[in-house]
Amino acid sequence: MGWRPTMGRQPVMIMLPTEQFEALVEQALAGLPPYFQEKMSNVAVLVQVWPTRSDLVRAGVPAGHTLLGLYTGIPLTVRNQGYNLVAPDTITLFQGPIEAAALAMVLPGDEAGDGLARIERQVRRTVLHELAHHFGISDERLRELGAY
What we know:
4-stranded mixed beta sheet; alpha+beta; 6 helices; globular; Zincin-like
């Protein structure tokens, strides 16, 4: 799961049309190395505008924080011969929190008009984070690897 502090802000108005945001998600997936694209198995990538309270509770998100993405399923490292006739795992990307996090974070070299580029980077980062869970990498291990 990817979560960030909300820093007391109210939800922001969505800047991108849904179709444009979904195109950024597709672009991030298409940009994965072929090895990872080939190894992805029985996983659907979804977009929701905001996480539900149930999503936040299920993911154990502390008060004052929100989710950028959520992986739900059985990681590839846990699957065995008994894994069949199973509904797809899901990776849900939350557009509102991703856009808010991207626009709140200005990196060195960013120009004032780089909002779309920042959202694109945050989408890619969130896709990679949630895919790491699909491949069996925990949040703790991602921290150890310096992915946060």
